[in-house]
Design goal:
By secondary structure, this protein is mostly helical. Helix content is 68%, strand content 0%. The protein contains 16 helices and no strands. The radius of gyration is 20 Å and the shape is globular.
Amino acid sequence: MHAFPHGTTSTPTTAVVPPSLALPVIESAFPRQLHPYWPKLQEKTRLWLLEKRLMPADKVEEYADGLCYTDLMAGYYLGAPDDVLQAIADYSAWFFVWDDRHDRDIVHGRAGDWRRLRYRLHTALDAPRHHLRHPDPLVAGFADGVLRLYGFLPHTWGRRFARHFHAVIEAYDREFRNRVEGYIPGVEEYLALRRLTFAHWIWTDLLEPSAGCELPGAVRKHPAYNRPALLSQEFAAWYNDLCSLPKEIAGDEVHNLGISFVTHEGMTLEEAVDAVRCRVEECISEFLDAEQDALLFADRLADGTVYGKELSAAVRACVGNMRNWFSSVYWFHHESGRYRVDSWDDRSTPPYVNNEAAGEK
């Protein structure tokens, strides 16, 4: 099965989904859409990666479009103003580059480099304007990205985003130590950590600037809104684990739900894959129920006032994009070169990464 007959990248492709990873309910009940700004988005994010020196020019030229980072965001934040979607897409591309640096710092034993980067990201998150010219492109790019994101909604939203991302940085540090020590977390410990390393609440926070409205805490924390938001992110994280298991086994990873099942639950690899898939499928069915509760909740917010009408519309937009996350994540994993391990010369080394420690030369 495929979503777009000619793909969404500049090179026409057909995404073929292996039977072991196919989810017919996604292909039938979650129609894939793409923000109309996508072609310009792809072009501008590619230029941003070059301008900020986040990827070498040759790797941007050869791999950036095929990695489909902009496709992922353009399939998620539908209805976002073009400048909001551009800022989100650039930030998302930065996140993938950061994830690759984290991985390479672990693989090459660069504990000191990682420690410095961790500290610099924390400080840049709180004072991005002061880090726009930082010598490490990853820090400068991050400062640029978050400064733009902070400009769309009030400071209260920015402070919440920063609080959530400080926790993500610390979770990446925990994963760094786990991998260096060869420590495989138990299932529950892994699930809690995964919610942070996958940045569940960051992507959920970004639904709000896309809808043009900061949601009050009483709305965001209400189970009718919070539950479908969590389920959409859990689906993404666990489906990612399912698809990236071969890549992570090849790279001697210890962070994958399937690996935790094998290590701590005594499962065979085949049983672990089935267990992860089962969780993924449960996420989908539970979301379909939670989505209806969320839409009823949105209806109740329309209390006859102008504010109530706007708030109801914003919640509906956010819930609609929670739904879009399912199809966008699903097809991304079958279109992006990030998961084509079998085509790499070295299954443990992605061809699109730079093995040098940028900013530490």
